[in-house]
Specification:
It is built from three helices and 14 strands. It is α+β, with helices and mostly antiparallel strands and about 230 residues long.
Length: about 230
């Protein structure tokens, strides 16, 4: 594994939002100009600006793409939150697609108001990447992990431990973007992908891993340590 480089935290907008943000801004400017010239009273103009300006602000927040760096010297046993959001599941589950045994699953739900960039939860090497078509149940429901559209990224840590990170589409989300490529080395601090609108990310860990979060806890992607491997 290469040496992880520490840098200052930065903030930028995600490239996945370029078209949406550009077209949205053009629409707002065009409609605002039309209302300003077509009505003698400025009230319609200001009502429009307040409503659609607020909506645009929410969308702008959604497409933020923070560049974060975990301030931990040894990450070999660390599992970080792959997303901003809230912990909605901590439980042992039967994982019969890849591991065929019990795993500890930690799930993080992302609301519309969270950043939707996803990070690699561990250092390692990408063993496999698989996209599955599926339904669009509400992302916080248990069946969403297996029945919804999802992308599975299997990562092997430097100690040979396989970790499954699953991006799950929600009732509104309709696009999962995965940057992970099979055979490539990956590191905490790097972006794994992006999910548009409300959705969820599951992490499947070996039994006996030390859980470092609790139900309902808010997480910050690439910053909150959710577990430690044995």
């Amino acid at each position: 594994m290469g040496k992880r480089i520490r840098k200052l935290k930065k903030q930028r907008l995600h490239s996945e939002g370029n078209d949406t943000l550009t077209l949205g801004l053009i629409f707002i400017v065009a409609m605002a100009a039309l209302l300003w010239h077509c009505f003698s009273s400025p009230i319609p103009f200001w009502i429009f600006i307040v409503i659609f300006g607020s909506v645009y602000g929410i969308v702008l927040n959604f497409y933020r793409c923070p560049i974060r760096y975990l301030d931990v010297d040894d990450t070999s046993k660390i599992v970080v939150a792959p997303a901003d959001g809230k912990v909605v599941v901590i439980e042992e589950v039967e994982e019969n697609e890849y591991f065929h045994d019990k795993r500890l699953m930690i799930s993080i739900f992302m609301s519309l108001f969270n950043v939707h960039a996803n990070w690699f939860p561990v250092d390692g090497k990408v063993k496999s990447v698989c996209h599955h078509d599926g339904n669009y149940h509400k992302a916080w429901l248990p069946k969403a992990s297996e029945e919804n559209e999802r992308a599975d990224v299997m990562i092997t840590t430097p100690d040979g431990v396989d970790i499954l990170c699953r991006q799950i589409a929600g009732a509104v989300a309709r696009r999962i973007v995965t940057y992970a490529k099979e055979g490539e080395e990956c590191y905490i601090d790097e972006h794994l992908g992006f999910i548009k609108l409300g959705s969820r990310v599951d992490v499947f860990l070996p039994l006996g891993s030390e859980v470092c979060v609790k139900m309902g806890q808010s997480t910050t992607g690439d910053q909150t340590i959710i577990a430690k491997l044995k």
